[in-house]
Write a structure and sequence with these properties.
This protein is mainly beta. It has 7 helices and 30 strands. It has a domain of about 190 residues: Immunoglobulin-like. The chain binds 2-acetamido-2-deoxy-beta-D-glucopyranose (8 copies) and copper (II) ion (CU). The site of copper (II) ion (CU) has 5 residues, from loops. Keywords: Copper, Metal-binding, Oxidoreductase, Signal.
């Protein structure tokens, strides 16, 4: 999103002046009301889901309600998966389009494991293009080459070939997801949930049922077309606006609206696609694992008449905090406990796209994406009569849930910084083609072909292509990462292989000594939104060797270059024994 800034040269005095002049007060964010009495529990379940399954055979609603037979106390084991990725025409919301699917499923298969397990996924690529699968949030400590980042930690799995990802999860748990990390492929369907259990989780005894709710913005046009348009002068830097949104891969769409869409498809369409339905058994408590697996839209999630008690952010247990709405940006996850303590009825689940984050209007889009909670005993329905919370969705800018509300359950102060890295994010239209590209300092990332930066680093190379911004971090020490966002858009940045401490955020540019920092048990997570014309200060411990992307998770922005790589612990990386079959894929 670049409407204002892209017309101005980044480092020009105009922008600096604009940054210094911004003093708009933060919108008053919704604070939780008094905690509702914890009397009962919420359970989502899948009776209506069976109906959906009959009309949407590519959707497996059952996998989103975690099976209670899964033993979280089992001895460490190997979790094997066998996946084939292929293209298939399906109609998640009633309108047909070709999608890229794992084992013919959308969303793709759940990966469920315990801390201490090994995860082994054989991926066979039956697409016409190369692919790679990234395990979002997994530390991959000592197995950086299993991170699945195309052009960084691997060459793509060539069409017709297989590669087996193989890694352990020794020291983390919570809610994660997996997705293609090649071109824009995940936008076309290569996504799925990844849940890690542990007996050490903080809130295990506070819920009865465990449910996954994957949100995604959704486009009727395949992503290569949208990305070519975005990276052409025609878009003027405006991102494609979604045609719809999905909850666990389902939603209704009014087919007559296709002709009014920004990109009409005129594809076969039936205006009868079902929404997801979550069955609640009165008295139970439901852990809802929210995942924004979309590519652009920021959602505000709520359930009518049901308070959300947030207990996890990006795999980090939190001290419970009650809210009515959870803003969730691309790549982020939250768990919230919901109590099934309301009258037996149907209630709307709402995932409201934040239209303030969009540059354009798509007349085909109903930005209020919905699913239903259905209480046992209430009539089965595709609509509810419930009302949205009275207080408005969060106003204005596309901000994360206020970091000061999220206090990690395992208290850890941010260690003092040993070294500081400053990065400037911007969109600039300085290429000959007059296309707006995403820059970290002066580099717009373009993925390498036929090699990966990790392989180059492993061989001892220290000067990389000019399209690669590589920040080398030689020692195990605490890095303070100061990120200035010189763009009018907000950017959910994801650091691979780490959880970061969020020690400071604010408007304007970071001013050392003046911008306030909080190092007392600050929020820790792996995906954090840089606000419009603002700064974010993060800290992380550089104790995981490898080549780690730090990138905007808004897919068009990544495709426009908004990525930097941390080259952590070079001597350990040079000693990596990278499997030969991984390097062989570079010769395809
Ligand atoms: C759980 O295990 C029991 C006993 O083996 C079995 O009868 C039941 O079908 C299983 N439930 C699910 C949901 O898999
Ligand atoms: C394969 O990749 C090319 C280049 O990105 C793209 O134009 C094409 O649409 C892709 N094919 C499919 C089927 O996704
Ligand atoms: C996974 O890696 C482990 C440890 O290197 C190895 O013992 C095992 O054979 C591998 N499994 C597969 C299926 O490649
Ligand atoms: C679908 O959209 C058309 C055109 O806006 C509108 O006239 C019609 O009422 C809509 N149908 C439903 C069921 O909402
Ligand atoms: C939901 O909450 C509203 C507002 O508090 C209340 O008026 C309504 O009766 C509740 N609905 C049900 C079905 O309990
Ligand atoms: C990025 O640019 C800023 C401002 O010029 C500079 O202070 C910083 O060191 C640069 N960062 C890197 C990694 O080059
Ligand atoms: C890291 O080590 C390399 C070579 O060993 C050196 O050139 C570079 O300056 C070091 N970087 C820092 C930040 O100390
Ligand atoms: C990675 O492994 C090293 C060595 O075992 C350990 O010191 C470090 O804390 C680990 N880091 C993460 C993020 O797991
Ligand atoms: Cu972005």
């Amino acid at each position: 999103m670049t409407v204002l800034i892209r017309k101005v040269f980044l480092f020009g005095s105009l922008v600096v002046a604009a940054l210094q002049a911004t003093s708009i007060t933060l919108p008053s964010l919704h604070r939780p009301q008094e905690a509702t009495t914890f009397a009962t529990s919420l359970v989502l379940d899948a009776s209506e889901a069976a109906v959906a399954a009959s009309t949407q055979p590519w959707n497996n609603p059952g996998q989103f309600h975690l099976n209670k037979n899964f033993s979280i106390n089992a001895t460490p084991t190997i979790r094997n998966y066998d996946w084939t990725i292929s293209q298939k025409t399906i109609a998640p919301d009633g309108l047909e389009r070709p999608m890229l699917l794992v084992n013919g499923m959308f969303p793709g298969p759940l990966i469920e494991a315990n801390t201490g397990d090994r995860i082994v996924v054989k991926v066979t690529n039956n697409l016409v293009n190369g692919t790679a699968i990234h395990w979002h949030g997994m530390f991959q400590n000592g197995t950086n080459w299993m991170d699945g980042s195309g052009g960084v930690t691997q060459c793509l799995i060539p069409p017709g070939q297989s590669f087996t990802y193989n890694f352990t999860v020794p020291n983390q748990w919570g809610t994660y997801w997996w997705h293609a990390h090649a071109a824009s492929q995940y936008v076309d369907g290569i996504i799925g949930p990844l849940v890690i259990h542990s007996p050490d989780e903080a809130h295990l005894s506070h819920y009865d049922e465990d449910v996954i709710v994957m949100l995604s913005d959704y486009y009727h046009t395949p992503s290569p077309t949208l990305v070519s348009w975005y990276l052409s002068p025609a878009s003027d830097g405006s991102e494609p606006i979604p045609d719809n949104g999905l909850i666990n891969g389902l939603n209704y769409f009014n087919c007559t609206l296709d002709s009014q869409a920004l990109f009409p498809t005129h594809a076969p369409c039936r205006s009868n696609a079902p929404r997801s339905v979550f069955d609640f058994q009165p008295g139970l408590r439901y852990r809802i694992r929210l995942i924004n697996a979309g590519s652009f839209a920021d959602f505000q999630f709520s359930i009518d008449n049901h308070t959300l008690s947030v207990i996890e952010a990006d795999g980090v247990d939190m001290q419970p905090v009650d809210v009515h709405r959870i803003p969730i940006h691309v790549g982020q996850r939250y768990s919230a406990i919901v109590q099934a303590n309301q009258e037996a009825d149907n209630y709307w689940i709402r995932a409201q796209m934040n239209l303030n984050c969009f540059n354009e209007v798509n007349p085909a889009l109903d930005a209020s994406v919905k699913a239903l909670v259905h209480y046992t005993g209430a009539p089965v329905s595709q609509v509810a009569n419930s009302f949205d919370w009275a207080e408005k969705a969060w106003p204005g800018r596309c901000l994360d849930l206020d970091a000061s509300m999220l206090k990690p359950f395992v208290v850890r102060d941010a260690p003092p910084a040993d070294v500081q890295v400053i990065l400037d994010m911007s969109f600039q239209k300085i290429t000959k083609k007059r296309v707006s590209l995403g820059y970290v300092n002066e580099t717009a990332w373009v993925p390498l072909k036929k090699t990966a930066t990790l392989f180059q680093a492993n061989k001892g190379k220290t000067n990389f292509a000019t399209t690669q911004l590589i920040v080398t971090l030689n020692q195990t020490q605490t890095v303070e990462l100061v990120v200035n966002n010189y763009d009018e858009g907000s950017h959910p940045f994801h650091l691979h292989g780490h959880q970061v401490y969020v020690v400071g955020e604010g408007r304007g540019r970071y001013i050392p000594g003046e911008s306030p920092l909080n190092t007392v048990n600050p929020l820790r997570r792996d995906t954090i939104t840089l606000q419009t014309f603002g700064y974010t200060v993060l800290r992380f411990v550089n104790d995981n060797p490898g080549m780690w992307p730090f990138h905007c998770h808004i897919n068009p922005h990544l495709n426009a270059g908004l990525m930097v790589q941390f080259f952590s612990l070079p001597s350990a990386v040079r000693a990596f024994k990278i499997p030969a079959e991984l390097k062989k894929m570079c010769n395809a």
